[in-house]
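B., you asked whether I could sanity-check this one before it goes into the benchmark set. Here's the sequence:
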Amino acid sequence: MAETASITLMQNAKSIRDIDIKDKCILIRVDFNVPMDNDFNISDDTRMREALPTINYCIDNDAKNIVLVSHLGRPKGRSADFSLKHVVKRLERLLDKNVFLADTIESARKEQASGNHEIILLENIRFYEGETKNDIELSKDLASLCDVYVNDAFGTSHRAHASTYGIAKFVQHKVAGILLKKEIDSFAKVIKNPLKPLLLIVGGSKVSSKLSLLKKVLDVVDKIIIGGAMSNTFLKALGYDMQSSLVEDDLIPDAISILELAKTKKVKVYLPVDIVSTDNINQPKEIKISPSQDIPKDFVAVDIGPASVKLFSEVVADSQTIIWNGPLGVYEINQFSRGTFNLAHAIANTYAFSFIGGGDTADAIDKAGQRDNMSFISTGGGASLELLEGNILPAFEVLDKK
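And here's what the prediction gave me:
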């Protein structure tokens, strides 16, 4: 699992609170990659709210101006669907200030010179092809907008992009924002001196994305619950017929070796003992609960069953630290959300320190109405997985150290 040395190194990054920002131009890499409906209404502005402490800190400490840089989605070139114009109104309301949306870096530079706006939001950074390639010219261009670079986008801190990595080379002061510090300090609490037993819950659809994680965590965790479509591959590895369920057949040998390694290291692994399955996920005519080894012919596993909920809830109740990444079923569809929601309720009812790994898991906890009952909800799913694997995140590598 995460080496405590790498966590300490990341905790050692200088914070915006460690430097003087009065009369300085500040560029903050934020994460405004928020979910929207088909009419571009923001359905969850958590990531925007989490960025407010750093932005307000700059305002309160007399920064000359603030340029905010974010991505939204994965656009192919410039596209109105992925424009940050969809977030400007909400940002203005949250800050109670006017925000200028700069279409280009040049336009942001002109607006800075005019002094008309204290806060400038640069249009979607992924409209620039060089962003994901960590392009040196784009990095220089971004750096020309600031005296101080602040990374406050934990959700993209595992990416070595121009706005999260390359820019730092060309700026004198590069520091962590308040959210970035909060994320790494909360994670340190889970990894450095966790209260035992330490439970890891992993779900979601793919084993492949969490395979190296599962191998590495066996040295630190006491228990692992595997759910969601991920568990199908493990159940098939045990010889169960998963019918039409999503299974990564090529990873069955890996699943077997993880289960054997866990046994050697005395880590208890819990898999669903019963399954909710259906004849059709989107238009179900039949939904059945069956033991995991007895799924009806041609049915698809969509959730954990009530016996699994009871078993997993008991495992949760007997844990002191809980890390959860990935839902345990197709929670977006009402009929298949019960397992994930019940687990959220079970965690909320404990006194354990609960660290929730971003993305779908955070969304599921919101839908279960348990956000306020979790110890810490991370804004980055992929980034927190990288931390769990013991990796130093690129965004932290390039920041000034204390």
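One thing to flag: The chain is about 35% helix and 15% strand. Otherwise nothing jumped out at me.
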